[in-house]
Amino acid sequence: MDNRENILRSALHLFYAKGYDAVGVQEIADAAGITKPTLYHYFGSKYGLLESLIERYYSSFARSLEQAAEYTGDLPMTLYQTAKVYFQLVSQNKEFYKFVMSMMYSGEESDPYKASEGIRLHQYRLFTDLFDKASDVVGNMNGRQEQYAITFIGFLNHYLLYWFVRKSNEKMISDGQAFSVVHQFLHGIYV
Fold first, then answer.
1. Do you know which InterPro entries this protein is assigned to (predicted)?
2. What pLDDT, on a 0 to 100 scale, did the predictor assign at position 188?
3. Closest C-alpha to 99, from 26, 49, 148, 41
4. Which sign, positive or negative, has the C-alpha torsion 96, 76, 190, 163?
5. pLDDT score of 186
6. Is 69 helix (H, G, I), strand (E, B) or coil?
7. Could you tell me if 181 and 156 are in contact, meaning their C-beta atoms sit under 8 angstroms apart?
8. The pTM is what?
9. How far apart are CA 66 and CA 58, in angstroms?
10. pLDDT, position 41
11. How far apart are CA 14 and CA 174, in angstroms?
């Protein structure tokens, strides 16, 4: 593993465990087994490291989510596919997922909140577009696509966060659970 990847992994673990603001550059350097100047060489600053960390870990999730959200006329199946992508992310990288959640709920003036803006906007736009495309099939959705997008994202995230608090020893989340979560969400749309 190269220095850059080592620094990113060490920073992610520390940010997840302690929170971004509680971790100093020296602590990251020590954990990665490098010097502070090496960290600055690769990332320029702690905030630059944070941005690189988001780019490194979110980009593949974003691509998978975009592919899963391609609407082909079957809203339940599309939502199920997107839920599976979320569940896979959490199963494969719990630390990144939980760190992103902590960033989204941090103070609005904080670096983590500002750095997570792109993630929030990406997901919000993706699901708003999906529900907009499906509004001709689900008539009671018209005019409420944004509400459904916000609700679906929140529904998934809350379920996933609760799962890992409640079932911390279980690493995998099943496809059956993804189906069940989507089915429960859809019950509110189709009723």
1. Homeodomain-like_sf (IPR009057), HTH-type_Tx_Regulator (IPR050624), HTH_TetR (IPR001647)
2. 65
3. 49
4. negative
5. 83
6. coil
7. yes
8. 0.88
9. 12
10. 96
11. 28
Block means of pLDDT (10 residues each) for the chain, length 191 residues? 93 97 97 97 97 96 96 94 92 92 94 96 96 83 88 92 67 74 78 49
Given this model, what pLDDT does residue 131 score? Answer: 93
Which residue is it, tokens 């220095």?
A: 3
> What count of Cα atoms within 13 Å lies in the side-chain half-sphere of residue 104?
18
- Identify the DSSP state of 59: H
- Locate 42 and state its tokens: 């690769």
Domains of the chain, with CATH numbers? 58-187 (1.10.357.10)
Cα–Cα distance for residue pair 145/133, rounded to 1 Å: 9
Do residues 28 and 14 lie in contact, with contact meaning Cβ atoms separated by under 8 Å? yes
Q: Report helix, strand or coil for 133.
A: helix
